[in-house]
Amino acid sequence: MEIDKYGYTLSELNDILKNYETELQKKFGSDFYIKPEGLVDNIITASGLCEMDLQDKLASLCKQFDPLTAEGKYENFLYERLGLTRKNDTPTEFTIKVFGIPDFSGEAGSITLRSNVTSDEFVNVEDYVLDGSGCSDIKFQAVVTGAVEVNSGDEFQIALAPEEIFAVISAFDITIGSQRETDLKFRERFNDSKAVNARAARNANLTNLSKYVDNMAFLKIIDKRTDKSFKAGSIEIIVKHNTTDEIFAKAVLDSVADGLDFIGNTTVTVKDNSGEDVEIKFEKASEPEISIKGTLKLKQGFYPNNVMTKAKQSVEEYITERVFGLGSVIYATEFIVPILKTDGVEAVLDIAVKKDDGEYADSVTLARNEAPKFQEIVFLEGDDLGRQ
Questions:
Q1: Helices 39-64 and 13-28, axial angle in degrees (round to 10)
Q2: Between 377 and 70, whose confidence is greater?
Q3: C-beta of residue 141 within 8 angstroms of C-beta of residue 91
Q4: pTM score, whole prediction
Q5: Which are the contacts of 128, defined by CB distance < 8 A and separation ≥ 6?
Q6: C-alpha 373, offset from chain centre
Q7: Which residues on adjacent β-strands are paired with residue 215?
Q8: What is the Cα–Cα distance from 337 to 324, expressed in whole angstroms?
Q9: What is the structure's pLDDT at 75?
Q10: What's the longest Cα–Cα distance across the chain?
């Protein structure tokens, strides 16, 4: 086995036996050779095989204690020592309107819904109280983790619930679950910064804070190197995080170099390792509402309501996969392709987007501290002239 600055090279059995032979010739003479099937020769060959086995074990250790090749629990151990934690699997979650007897209260886990589309089951994760009209928005979670698909138009049946609960309708605020981060994805995230433990490195900061966002598109770090207008020593962390302000502020304190001047609209006081109060500022992204409106020409023989619903679902799925992050430019024409993939749609006659209460236009440009929140998606039927 040869080890140098480039790594290691495993020995072949013939190489090992040749080395043995050379050493034994020093003792028994140059006419000594290892031959097959002799007693001494078999013992020497067995020793060579044991050496190969030892080399394999050493190679395995070299692999598992190298951050660029480690796998499984070894990868977890190494990266955690460097401040990076594997993302575990998460369940799909959504909020849905529940109807029943007014003022009725129930406990977490008392309602089970079953999807009419996938047959997956979901359980309420919090206690609830129906209002005076017998309605409440209740958060549900899939009973299994991973990417259980749910769309806003899906229907659910009540599989188990108190008799005071009658019906459910209109799922919203849907967050699709994810599988446990694979070794490959974990390594890719590690490679984004070779120095995740170097607190002053910008890439390291992004990596350390990445587990507090659903996608890296929702995290930006702005400093003098990325924006020449910034004063040296100042830093602005813009984020749409998936945790509390307090937890994120503590993560910033643990990740970002001391002595920097933080800029942002959110201020949180946290304690450092010595118990001293430290004021952390970061820019919490605003979420302007984005609306989409279009006119579609439908194929003959298709029911308009069904086609419009499916077209809306296609656009929602595209938005989820595309991920519009901070400072996105949202072009209306982007949504034409998923719409045309919908059964029953012959053509997209016109389509436009708007931000909040603004005017519909061909595109919307967000500021770098804005993350879009898609709200209203409306499609109408029209003819070749675009008339509705």
A1: 130
A2: 377
A3: yes
A4: 0.48
A5: 98, 105, 106, 136, 138
A6: 18
A7: none
A8: 16
A9: 74
A10: 102
